[in-house]
Amino acid sequence: MSKTLDARGLSCPQPVLVTLDEIKSAGEKDLLIIVDNEASKENVSRALTNQGWTVDGVEEDGGDYRIRAKKG
To answer: pTM above 0.85?
Structure first.
């Protein structure tokens, strides 16, 4: 079961900070992060990769981006 983070409506760097807080505190191995702009999509994906996570895919859905990530 993956955890969903809804970071829509947040401006950078808030989506990145929310994502980093979650991966450091929750211990989840699967995440779905939802953002609503291209810059957040790129920055969150980069932050996940830098923390050792794998971005499994990004889906665009009506202007929102759904970033699927796994630890390891």
So the answer is: yes
CA angle 41, 19, 57 (to 5 degrees): 45
Is residue 1 very low, low, confident or very high in pLDDT (cuts 50, 70, 90)? Answer: low
Please count the structural domains in the chain.
1
Indicate which CATH number applies to the domain containing 39.
Answer: 3.30.110.40
Range of the domain at 38: 3-71
Strand partners, 58: 67
Q: Give residue-wise pLDDT tens across range 12-45.
A: 899 999 999 999 886 778 999 999 999 999 999 9
User: In this structure, what are the phi and psi dihedrals at residue 43, rounded to the nearest 5 degrees?
Assistant: -70, -40
Task: Please enumerate in sequence order all residues whose Cβ is within 8 A of that of 17, keeping only pairs 6 or more positions apart, or say none.
Answer: none
Structure tokens at 2: 């993956």
